[in-house]
Design brief:
Blueprint (H helix, E strand, L loop, with lengths): L2 H26 L9 H12 L8 H21 L4 H19 L5 H11 L2 H6 L2 H22 L12
Length: 161
């Protein structure tokens, strides 16, 4: 990445993360909840720092995070009383599912864990957590990454759109 591309990516990552964080905060409506879902930060690093990587494809971002959120919520409901066991099952299930769906997105592991350890505000959302904030955060990151890509010499997403 050239210095110009790095600067554009850095500005894009800032805008994407602050926008996703704002909407997460509004959705979660709690000062005790995380301002931003941790996996959104990791996704931003992939989308803006390595835009040409396979893990940064739009499908990987959206489906990888969403399916991992579904798995995390499901594990939270089915395996109670042992957070370590629950997260230790959710992460490899997310890995296997993303592999077979061909949408590997490493921050999906953190998304699954957030559904389990994210606190009462996230637990109260249940499966809504998949849509709000996970899907919307991923969509925000994707839209801004595509806009940033249009400022670079070559759009990194042109083959996927």
């Amino acid at each position: 990445m050239s210095n110009k591309e790095l600067l554009i990516s850095t500005i894009g990552a800032f805008i994407a993360v602050i926008t996703a964080g704002f909407f997460s905060n509004v959705i979660l409506q709690s000062t005790n909840s995380p301002l931003i879902i941790a996996s959104a930060g990791a996704s931003a690093i992939l989308m803006f720092g390595t835009p040409h990587a396979a893990n940064s494809r739009p499908l990987n971002l959206i489906v990888g995070n969403s399916i991992s959120a579904i798995i995390g919520v499901t594990c939270f409901y089915l395996i109670t009383g042992n957070t370590l066991l629950t997260t230790s099952i959710a992460i490899p299930l997310s890995l296997i599912t993303m592999h077979f769906l061909k949408c590997m997105h490493p921050p999906g592991g953190a998304t699954a864990v957030t559904a389990i350890i994210g606190g009462e505000a996230i637990h109260q959302l249940g499966y809504i957590f998949v849509i709000m904030p996970i899907f919307f955060n991923s969509l925000i990151l994707l839209i801004i990454a595509i806009a940033v890509g249009s400022f670079r010499d070559k759009n990194p997403f042109e083959k996927d759109l």
